[in-house]
Amino acid sequence: MANAAASDEAAKQRIIKHMNADHRDSLIRLLEHFAHLSPFSARNAQITDISLTSLTISTSSRSTYTIPLEPAMASYAEARHRFIELDNQATTSLPQRSPITVKKYKRPHGFMALVFVAAATTYVCFIKRSNFLPGSLLYDSVLQYVPRFAKFCYTIQPLVLYPMLVLHSSEAAYMAKTRCERHGVRVFSLLWWKWVGSTFVEGVGSFVRFDRIVKAEEGRKNREEGGKAGTEDIHHAKGVSEPLLASAQ
Predict the structure, then answer these.
(1) Is omega for the bond preceding 243 within 30 degrees of 0, making it cis?
(2) pLDDT tens digits along 215-247
(3) 57: helix, coil or strand?
(4) Closest CA to 246 of 116, 80, 88
(5) What pLDDT does 232 receive?
(6) Of 46, 34, 31, 26, nearest to 98 (Cα)?
(7) Which of 54, 151, 201, 221 is 20 to 30 Å from the Cα of 232, by its Cα?
(8) How many CB atoms lie within 10 A of CB 75?
(9) Rounded to whole angstroms, what are the CA distances from 156 to 139, 152, 184?
(10) Contact call for residues 91 and 174 (beta carbons, < 8 A)
């Protein structure tokens, strides 16, 4: 009996550690669906306990939410399969969410890098009108040699800066809503700031890179599912079954 209890406790800890470390996006979706939380409120979700009948998830506000497991699991070996079912249920009920989670940031390269540098330089130079007047670092270092160009930039500064701020702020908000939120990038995480901040600077290039990552992940997932289906068919033919919680061990 003691050995069985110790084994169950070890399995519980493996599940909790694995889910909190590698599947935070899934926990967020579970809270959005079952507890009706917003992505912001659920952003730091983590499992604090699991039993054969329920799992408990907490948030950064120290609120805890219990999700029943119906029917109850016969053993913790069923946990992996049950989490997949719950996540599929949550994803299906949240049409704005995708099962594909983006977990990395891709920096601009080539032409996109040039656009990024040009946009960032424009922000720095046009952030205030006085940059184009004598006495400023920009003017005294560079623009004093092209005074007519400095005068031209001084004239158009409001026409460049404010539309650029409005346009790129809108694009950053659109990135946060249609890409980051949809693909499990936690609100205000470092990864979230990289994507949203990059979009604020360069604009559309960030969307291109983000969508390429999603497309690559979709292809990888489809290949893995195809491989698993083939493996399961072979195992079924041989009368062999895989441990359901292999990835958590």
Answers:
(1) no
(2) 999 999 888 877 765 655 555 555 544 443 444
(3) strand
(4) 80
(5) 55
(6) 26
(7) 54
(8) 12
(9) 16, 6, 40
(10) no
Q: Distance (Å, rounded) from C-alpha 83 to C-alpha 94?
A: 16
Task: Tell me if 47 sits within 8 A of 57, measured CB to CB.
Answer: yes
**What does 150-199 look like in DSSP terms, one character per residue?**
HHHHHHHHHHHHHHHHHHHHHHHHHHIIIIITTTT--TTSHHHHHHHHHH
Residues with Cβ within 8 Å of residue 61, at least 6 apart in sequence: 41
What secondary structure letter does DSSP report for 72? P
Q: Find out whether 59 and 73 touch, Cβ atoms under 8 Å.
A: no
pTM of the predicted protein model: 0.78
- The phi, psi pair for 56, rounded to 5°, reads -115, 130
pLDDT tier, 55 (very low <50, low <70, confident <90, very high otherwise): very high
* Residue of 67, 12, 19 whose CA lies nearest to 46: 19
How far apart are alpha carbons 209 and 218 in whole angstroms?
A: 14
pLDDT digits (tens, 9 = 90+) for 81-105: 999 999 999 999 998 889 899 999 9
Centre a 10 Å sphere on the Cβ of residue 165 and count the other Cβ atoms it contains: 14
Listing DSSP states for 91-131 in one string gives HHH-TT--S----------THHHHHHHHHHHHHHHHSSGGG
| φ/ψ (deg, to 5) at 221 | -65, -40
Record the tokens describing residue 207, joined without a space.
């969307």
Mean pLDDT of the chain: 90
